[in-house]
Write the structure tokens for this entry.
Amino acid sequence: MMKKIFISLFLSGVFMYHTNAQTAVEGNKFLDNWSIGISAGGTTPLTHHSFFGNMRPITGIELNKQLTPVFGFGLEAVGSFNTSQSRTIFDRSNVSLLGLVNLNNLLGTYTGVPRPFEIEAVAGIGWLHYYMNRETGSDQNSMSTKLGLNFNFNLGESKAWTLALKPALVYDMNAMGSEAVRFHSGRAVWEISVGLKYHFGCSNGKHHFTKVRAYDQQEVDVLNAKINQLHTHAATYITENDVDIENLSISSVLFGNAFTAMPPEQRDQEYFGQHVYKIATLQNIKLVRTPDLFSAALYIKDTQDQAYAKQCYDLFFDGKSGQIEFPKHS
């Protein structure tokens, strides 16, 4: 059976293509990589007060957009309770436009999947609003600056959820408009909160950026030339050996082994670039990830499971194009 499989592969025109090209990220459309989150914690003055004795509750909501695996931005609203003599529901609110920098991906390399733990730097400006009762005066506005870190724990296999510890300093930059804009420790507060964030699905089918193989037009042209050469060789073989083509289903097979420097369990699922998938559909080409083929061949060699070997054999001659998914085995 194994001999038949390899003979059939030869007849179908096998082209070994070892992929080790430059990678790019996928999932960077406008509607990709948005997330929404909620948070709760406490706030306390930076100076001249007891840290825990003057801690008051806060709650917040945020909407974020990741532009690249390193940079993103977010819109955040945080409300504070019992931080003044006012008897309003919120004593203070701060609406901020924040820049986000993933320090792990900035200093390291993005692997195609968020790490279980990442540190994110946060900085931005905002509108700080103080709510007052009629008896205590009118509401006041000020400019704010927020500086902080997010210690992110990315949860689950899909990394759709993030649990974060979020310490930050928030400055009232101009004392409700009564002073010049500047950083002053007497007008700063700590914000320490815990947040839960959900990452919406992207166009790549994931909840995050993925790494894909990048092809330029020259590489695509070379690939097309190789595919045409395969068809020519197959036609020549059929003519010279008087093969019965009426009962033979022929297609080219492209083998790919991307990210060879990485362990198999860390390799991205995108073994072939989108250009290759499109060409495979148009040219009736089958795509095989060599780690999958190795696993199937090793299983057949060790077990001599003829039924499983027949299943694998039939996949190469089912008349379908695209990536081959070998049957599961024990």
In short: The longest strand covers residues 140-155. The chain has a mean pLDDT of 82.
